[in-house]
Fold:
Amino acid sequence: MMKKTSMIRDNYLFRRLYRKGKVQVTPCMAIYYHRGGKTNRLGITTTKKIGTAVARNRARRVILESYRLLEDDIPSGWDFVIVARSRAANEKMQVVKAELEGALKHLPGRRLSTTGSKK
RNA sequence: CGAGCAAGCAAGGAAACGGCCGAAGGUUUGAUACCUUUGGAGGAAAGUCCGGGCUCCACAGGGCAGGAUAGCUGCUAACGGCAGCCGAGGGCGACCUCAGGGCUAGUGCAACAGAAAAGAACCGCUCUUUUUCAAGAGCAAGGGUGAAAAGGCGAGGUAAGAGCUCACCAGAGUGCAGGCGACUGCACUGCUGUGUAAACCCUAUCCGGAGCAACACCAACAGGAGGCAAUGCGGUGGCCCGCCGGGCCUCCGACAGGUGGCUUGACGUCCCGCGGCGACGCAGGACGCAGAUAGAUCGUUUCCAAAUACAGAACCCGGCUUAUAUGCUUGGUCGCAUU
RNA sequence: GCGGGUAUGGUUUAGUGGUAGAACAUCAGCUUCCCAAGCUGAGAGUGUGGGUUCGAUUCCCAUUACCCGCU
Structure:
């Protein structure tokens, strides 16, 4: 069933992902991902560049909801940090969800094959 | 009907499915997880410009320095806020705006132009002497400069002039009357060197410092090197005193987790009564009550013509300022038309 | 959340009420066969909106943007 999304809260985890993780960039966000524990963990960063507190809250909510709807289809064992870009606050939730889905489609293939070549 | 003025309100709603945070209750567990019920952002939550509560430092003490305010009377816990009134300015008017004390306490500044920017005389005017040039005396009306020129304007007066005299006007002083007061009215006195205090300053009143990352508690921790020192160091803040504490500073290293504070309070909304022009005060009743800690109110679909602006509590409250789509309400004013 | 600061030509900066100055850069001319360097000259600026004042970069208020410190 729907289980609770576990969140990344500690700063050192964010720093590790920024340093060691791989990046996938879409118009609305930048996704950092790295191998983690048994369950998937998610962190969301909304910087002041996005806008006011209302815009930051909306970007965070939209990304969290997109992730929540896709969570069952994502292979486990990854940590994610999603950095919202300035368009995320204005887009509808379906757009963000489609972008996230498209970006994470690479994950299983990347996990099976050992090729680390970036596109 | 048009234009304009003032005051005020709302700040989407409904349904279905799914999701987030808190509280209470229940089941369960080694941690916890699940279920039910219930509550869950704003008029500015914003900017942090003022004021207060609260906490710690001596329950806050003395002095200096510094800062804030600036018509009067009140309201308030307090205020730089608000109300009423006074004065000045603007508008035909409804009404609006004003840091609105003191340059006859002192000091300073007033570029350029101009004779002169504060106890003024360049061009001038008049009289006397003199053939003339010029010299002496008197005057401040006229000229031009400037943002500002020695009260304004007219008449009398004079050698020429001048508040020298007079009427009106502006200001100042004195007296009387009214008002709690700011101030207003009347009379008298020729009393009249400008502006600037958002220049220094003076006067009056007020202000101790820091801020919930305050502060308190629990858990954990490891110390080493160098330097200074009882006329010293810290609490304590710009300085001195006073009080309290007890060695202090620099570098390297280690730790850097949790709980409380945390929301019931000068509380808000509605109804009603009394006092007050009003701000507001007093009294009664009913209802309501976010408390997170990477930080919660949303996502999708449908309907309502459309629902979209500015924007998200972070210790709390009273103001101010700034941003704001759309839709309304009420009361004055002016103009036109009709009766 | 709390506290503090800055804004001046394209860039780095002076300027304590009276015409806003300098350096580098840009442009034009001279010099050179050409370029560079050098010399001469020109253009270009007070974040925004109000207020005080005769007059504001300067003083006061508001606002915008940016920067810094405190876990």
